[in-house]
């Protein structure tokens, strides 16, 4: 199969060709590998190849909705047995960490018949909204190689948008599916708390704020994959009611007339670009043309307080993770990025009382969203505050680096997280991506839909948040939007 033909299909489309015996999985894999060999040196999306394993699997009798479809997994919490795994971290890369188990999400993906041929780039431990790890280098955006692909599922987004695969594994703890989806012009859904599994290592991640799913070109690929992997396992702490209908069936139905609130103001008071505002305004007009009611409104939530509560939990959880990695890898601070060391230092100083207070606040935000959804069916915002930043543009402020190094040297880095400086840190960390954390903290399902490209050809997504457990509502609307304003034709403009 020529690439020009391969790129026209989504995952289910390629699987149908295999089912009809019009093409063999090994031929699809060869096309994907040729594309990878051509453009991955420019993108740096795949960092750990699995080519030989993939070639062997492509010869097997594969079954499932994605039988024979080339696939990639994220190099973070998506372990393959006997395949090196780094979490984007030099410490694990140094010891060639190789797990002796499959993550449960990987087992479920495998049952769909996919053929995985590599692991994708991610920031160290997935803690940033960009993918520029010291361990592996920058992941580039296919729409413009001078720009970043976003994070933390940046490698996955770059690979899908760059035509290596139609669908790839991703994860979202603070926007890490929706941010790269926005920057790379893809469809990205973060499921509700507990919808997809975290075993066998964990029962959940960050109190259910972090969830695993995929990035895809089409809505139906995302729906079909969620059908295949959703539901608890033995280790699951959070158990969610199964959907009444298959998501793939739901998206065949036209959604009811929806009442949708929208807002374009940053919840933390930072700048929102004209592109982001125009993206939402155009989406609102499209929704109205489809018969939906669109109203400007926002939940009664203090966005800065939510952001501070999010980063308190995030830093604390990361501090625990880093300590575990240090012990397992025999690593020291020298084996981690400066930002990672600093965040871990902040998190280590959070007291139990402060942590419980933060979690209690998470519950209050969930209550406010429940009240908000008594009036509205969905909440619309920009997915990101702007199009993708240029590579190197999002970095620890120059003024902070020598201060951080000095404070770390004397064990006082946590001082930066006190008083008014914590607000400054929140704004520095989240100003590019202030809209996504709300859904993680509250455990609500949310999606980024690619409906806008600016005059320079860079995409920016529209984010929709739904009530708990209502992925069906999101997917159904996304399918309607995809039909009304198809985004796949935009891909002819990618020149790599």
From TrEMBL:
Any GO molecular function: catalytic activity
Entry-linked SUPFAM superfamilies: Amidase signature (AS) enzymes
InterPro entries: Amidase, Amidase_CS, Amidase_dom, AS_sf
Domain Amidase span(s) in chain numbering: 27-475
One Pfam entry name: Amidase
Database matches in PROSITE patterns: AMIDASES
Gene3D superfamilies given in the database record: Amidase signature (AS) domain
Family, similarity comment: Belongs to the amidase family.
Name of protein: Amidase domain-containing protein
Organism of derivation: Acinetobacter colistiniresistens
């Amino acid at each position: 199969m020529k690439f020009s033909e391969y790129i026209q299909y989504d995952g289910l489309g390629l699987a149908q060709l295999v089912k009809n015996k019009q093409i063999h999985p090994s031929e699809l894999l060869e096309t994907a590998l040729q594309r990878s060999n051509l453009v991955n040196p420019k993108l740096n999306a795949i960092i750990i190849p699995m080519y030989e394993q993939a070639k062997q699997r492509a010869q097997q009798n594969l079954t499932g909705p994605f039988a024979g479809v080339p696939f990639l997994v994220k190099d973070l919490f998506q372990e393959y047995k006997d395949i090196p795994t780094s979490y984007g971290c030099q410490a694990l890369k140094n010891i060639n960490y190789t797990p002796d188990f499959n993550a449960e999400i990987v087992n479920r993906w495998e049952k769909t018949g996919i053929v995985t041929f590599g692991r994708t780039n991610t920031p160290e431990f997935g803690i940033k909204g960009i993918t520029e790890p010291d361990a592996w280098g920058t992941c580039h955006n296919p729409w413009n190689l001078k720009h970043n692909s976003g994070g933390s599922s940046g490698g996955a987004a770059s690979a899908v948008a760059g035509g290596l695969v139609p669908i790839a594994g991703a994860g979202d703890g603070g926007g890490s599916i929706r941010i790269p989806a926005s920057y790379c012009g893809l469809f990205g859904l973060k499921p509700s708390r507990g919808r997809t599994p975290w075993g066998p290592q964990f029962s959940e991640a960050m109190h259910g704020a972090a969830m695993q799913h995929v990035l895809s070109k089409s809505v139906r690929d995302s729906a079909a994959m969620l059908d295949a992997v959703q539901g608890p396992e033995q280790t699951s702490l959070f158990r969610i009611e199964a959907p009444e209908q298959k998501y793939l069936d739901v998206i065949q139905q036209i959604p009811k007339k929806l009442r949708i609130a929208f807002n374009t103001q940053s919840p933390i008071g930072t700048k929102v670009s004209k592109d982001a505002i125009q993206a939402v305004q155009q989406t609102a007009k499209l929704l109205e043309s489809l018969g939906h009611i669109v109203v400007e409104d926002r939940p009664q939530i203090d966005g800065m307080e939510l952001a501070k509560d999010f980063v308190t939990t995030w830093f604390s959880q990361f501090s625990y993770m880093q300590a575990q990695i240090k012990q397992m890898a025999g690593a020291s601070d020298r084996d981690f990025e400066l930002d990672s060391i600093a965040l871990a230092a902040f998190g280590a100083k959070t007291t139990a009382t402060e942590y419980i207070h933060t979690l209690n606040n998470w519950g209050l935000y969930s209550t406010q969203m429940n009240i908000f959804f008594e009036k509205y069916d969905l909440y619309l915002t920009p997915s990101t505050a702007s199009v993708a930043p240029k590579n190197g543009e999002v970095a620890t402020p120059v003024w902070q680096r020598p201060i951080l190094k000095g404070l770390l040297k004397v064990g006082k880095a946590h001082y930066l997280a006190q008083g008014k400086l914590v607000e400054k840190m929140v704004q520095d960390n989240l100003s590019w991506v202030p809209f996504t954390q709300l859904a993680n903290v509250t455990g609500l399902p949310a999606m980024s839909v690619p409906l806008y490209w600016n005059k320079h050809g860079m995409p920016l997504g529209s984010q929709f948040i739904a009530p708990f457990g209502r992925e069906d509502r999101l997917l159904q609307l996304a399918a309607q939007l995809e039909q009304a304003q198809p985004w796949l034709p935009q891909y002819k403009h990618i020149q790599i």
